[in-house]
Amino acid sequence: MLRLLALLVSLGLMASAQKPVYWLLWFDTEDFVEPASDDVALELARGLTQRGVRATFKVVGEKARVLEQRGRGDVVQALSAHDIGYHTNFHSVHPAPAEYLSQMGLLDGAAEFARRERAGFDDVERIFHVTPSCFGQPGNSWAPQANLALREWGVRVYMDDAGQVGLNQRPFWFGGMLYVFNLGPHTVRAGLDDASKLEDAKRRFDAAIASARQQDGVVQTYYHPTEWAATKFWDAVNFSHGANPERESWQRPPLRTEESRRQAYRIFFDFVDHARATPGVRIVTSRDLPALFEPRDQAAPVATARHLAESIDTRDGFSAADQLLTLLGLPPQHVDGPLRRVASTDARTEIPRALFERAKADAAAFVRKTGRLPDQVWTGAQAISLPDFAATLAADSGAGLVKVRAGRLDIERYIGRDAQKLYNWVIHPEGFAPESLLEMARLQAWTLKPARLAASRTATRGE
Q1: Mean pLDDT in runs of 10 for the chain (463 residues)?
Q2: Is the omega angle on the peptide bond into residue 95 within 30 degrees of 0, that is, cis?
Q3: Contact at 8 Å (CB) between 298 and 450?
Q4: What are phi and psi of 68, to 5 degrees?
Q5: CA 150 to CA 127: how far, in whole Å?
Q6: Do the beta carbons of residue 43 and residue 73 sit within 8 Å?
Q7: Do 256 and 365 fall into the same domain?
Q8: What is the CATH classification number for the domain harbouring 233?
């Protein structure tokens, strides 16, 4: 008996010593066409509250306004017991974010995103009495310009799922935002239409938890309340392939039967109960995330930064921008990547020491003034590209002539390449392939680095 007790105690200690895995459950709360989705959001929020589970409801601005207009204070109150994020102003009403940003640069695009989306953000904040904790794009209509505007609004987390950028199926920092994005098999959900597949979904969840435990892992599950209300998405009915009918012509989607809806609830809450019962799983919201991870801005050691000479990449948890700041003698801070890809015009293989030192000082002054990396660094009447400058600076011995090195942008491998595939959302026009957005993402890849869990931080597990 004593041996059995000792074994049980030992197993308990082993379980408690396991690294926790954080589970995020979130809902894109977007359907402002079909009123039945209001009741679904209410039932989901209340059912989760009864189980002690807090989810994140990412709310579209127009959805919040429609709830207000319909007098659905009960829905607002139920969702307010959870975390509230933001999910654009009008979601699928054209132009979607990637559409209106595809021909814009980083800075003018950020201003345009703010112009179009801030009103919805403010309405969500006003109606739910809380500043949204996170943002996610509609469909796969992702664009890097959003990061700049979101930071200005005090939003710290970008939480969604798409393939334009990713880092080893784990959370990462990009554009100054904490990204939970492109997690691969660490994004798990149970289908709502076939109860026979629920056990497989639970097994995939368990496998995701086991995998995430080996790294600074987060597992996420997401749904849309409209999935319980209708058999077809509300926006696909109205806005597919660039269609943009006037509001009076919007069509309601075909509804589920009551039996089908009830089965979907049973499957979902069974899946949630399984997640709750999984040892070591801690249920968190987007609002909890920043406190769980190490600070965004930390100084890269010189020894790490010197590796830029061979490879411009994230290394030892630091972004390429972090490493370059160290070499420039600047304090740790977020800086955006360059605005353009510029080739070197200085053909020399060696640069006089005094000239290079002035170029280095000028680059540091540019960063301090603008908060971003320069496109190129001037060496008199000519210039060298940012990658070549970083590699040259990293390899510089500090004496004699400065030997110019070509920079190798390995960091860009984390950015997707097939624009047409990555933006093939049914709402976008057919053939929509904004390569310009992927190119801008490559330029901002200087800011990319893994998000590392802070060892001393814990979160309360939802029971």
Answers
A1: 45 54 98 98 98 98 98 98 98 98 98 98 98 98 98 98 97 98 97 98 97 89 98 98 98 98 98 97 97 94 98 98 98 98 96 97 98 97 97 95 97 98 98 98 98 66 36
A2: yes
A3: no
A4: -65, -45
A5: 19
A6: no
A7: no
A8: 3.20.20.370
Look up residue 125 and give its two tokens: 């904040």
User: What is the number of H-type helices and E-type strands within the chain?
Assistant: 18, 14
Phi, psi at 309, each rounded to 5°: -60, -35
Q: How many domains does the chain fold into? A: 2
- Which residue do the tokens 């280095």 mark? 360
Which domain range does residue 68 map to? Answer: 18-295+446-450
- 8-state DSSP, 460: P
Element containing residue 19 per DSSP (H, E): none
The tokens of 140 are what? 């796969």
Let me know whether 226 and 96 are in one domain.
yes
Residue 28 sits in the same domain as residue 152? yes
Which pTM was predicted?
0.94
Question: Residue 265 corresponds to which amino acid?
Answer: Y
DSSP 50-74: HTT---EEEE-HHHHHHHHHTT-HH
> Of 255, 221, 246, 262, which is closest to residue 31 (Cα–Cα)?
255
Q: How far apart are the C-alpha atoms of 60 and 96, rounded to whole Å? A: 13
